[in-house]
Amino acid sequence: MKITIINDYFFGELSDDLMTRIKNVAPDYVVTSVQREGVAVDDLVDSDIVFGRIPPEILKHLKNLKWMHLGSAGADGLTDISIYGNDSVIVTKSSGTFGIPISEHIMGMMISLSRGFTYYHKKQLTNEWCETFPEFHNIHGSTVLIIGLGDIGTEVSKHLAGFGCKIIGLRRNISKPHETIEDIRPISKLHESLPEADYIIICAPGTTETNKMFSHDEFDIMKSRAIIINVGRGMIIDSDALTVALNDGKIAGAGLDVTDPEPLPNDHPLWQAKNVLITPHVSAASQLTTQRRVNIFIDLLTRFVTGNEMYNTVDFDAGY
């Protein structure tokens, strides 16, 4: 039996200590690692368990694969069971790993865009002491709409509590109460809720339901002072519509850690749009993120080898 770790550019190779912890949990398994760049069928064909994102075009050939654990909180591109060689495969995610670093990234974007930091940084690059200023916005007392209330959406709601914000949460399942947000609404209430919001924070996964959730119609009904932050998936926002909305002053700003397409081509007009802050899908990065995601994998591995119930499983019917 074999476990293969796929090392990617984002998290790099696991330390000897982390590899030893994995081996100690599953002593009957051979544990190896490969680099994601250039990974081929032969690297994975005899693996029972893979920790990492397997390229979709390879999955059909991996009939021995029993469980794939993703190092990400999202499973976009991997939620169609027909692309797998084993239709009883278990796929799990690292949900619960990224809430703290991503929520801090969100707060940084909100403050930067609201206080004109991007504007002043451009002035600083030309050694210009600028006594004019863009329109500033207060986070304190504002209304914040959070779309997606998993680990990330919940964590950012905790950060916002200190700013005295009114928080509205949108999610698919509204039947259970939320630990920090009282005003919970279904996704179908998006258009009803957008005109209320000063900030819109997207933490939702990329699914057929969320694809192009924000386009011209949505930007048309948002406040002109509204700022939108996307740490979910780039496909949720129509990039061309967002570029128009920013340049025409329909909304006040946008912070994007994900884009569509991704990577964003260097000649894409969104780069030059007004009051946009773009980071290259790095909001999850921190010195503790790798350890956190390995901790989840080890906990799940313990459950897998002992036959106990798994969690963070991908729902192939729901698409996430």
Strand content: 15-25%
Helix content: 25-40%
Enumerate how many helices there are, as a single number: 10
Number of strands: 12
Identify the CATH class of the largest domain: Alpha Beta
H-E string? EHEHEHEEHHEHEEHEHEHEEH
- Provide the spatial order of strands within the biggest beta sheet: 8-7-6-9-10-11-12
Unreliable stretches covering 5 or more consecutive residues: none
Number of domains: 2
- Calculate the mean pLDDT score and round it: 94
Describe the structure.
There is one protein chain. The protein is α/β, with parallel strands linked by helices and 320 residues long. It has two domains: 2-97 and 286-306, NAD(P)-binding Rossmann-like Domain (Rossmann fold, 3-Layer(aba) Sandwich); 99-278, 3-Layer(aba) Sandwich (Rossmann fold), CATH 3.40.50.720. The protein is 28% helix and 16% strand. It contains ten helices and twelve strands. The protein has helices spanning 16-25, 41-44, 56-59, 99-114, 117-125, 151-160, 190-193, 216-221, 239-247, 289-306; strands spanning 2-7, 30-35, 49-51, 67-69, 90-92, 143-147, 166-171, 183-186, 199-202, 227-230, 253-256, 276-278. The strands form two sheets. The protein has a seven-stranded parallel sheet, with helices on one face. It has a five-stranded parallel sheet with strand order 2-1-3-4-5, with helices on one face. The two termini are 28 Å apart. The mean pLDDT is 94.
